[in-house]
Hints:
Number of helices: 11
Order of helices and strands: HHHHHHHHHHH
Shape: globular
Radius of gyration: 15 Å
Amino acid sequence: MPSPQSLSEIDRREVAMWAADCAERVLAVFEAEAPDDARPRDAIARARAFARGELDAAGEIRRRFVAGRAAHAVSSPAAVAAARAAAQAAGVAHMGAHALGAAAYAAKAAGSAAPDRPDAIHEEIAWQLEHMTDETRSALRQLPPLGEDSAGPLGAGLLASGVLGTTIRTIQEAIGSSQDTR
């Protein structure tokens, strides 16, 4: 039985575009530090191609870790988070819950890149929510609330703590959890 964090392929394709949009907003933060490293940009392009039906899930599952390795090529927390946002967007082909990971890492990158702007994270989350289609919102509502299902990225791991966890909880509260729609 697949994890409730997986989502159907149709729903993964839907949320992949939003995840790519979230990651692309902070891509410049990564590229400022590593202008010759195309891995995050390529991951975002692949997430968009997957969303359009141009790439299959199996091929993307095999390549999903490439962008994450780019996080080791930079040192600033903002650039690391931007690379991880792109990697999470690419991971949506494998599991839909990675879309929330892409949004959370993008918000973290935005906040880390603007330490003098205390509202940077909240502004990023507001942008993410405003740019969510009804279909994306509906698909993301199917995901279990953060921390309730250990079989995927929304378990008790990295995404459940700190600014990442706070961001995901904020998004899930704003769209309504899966428990609200059952």
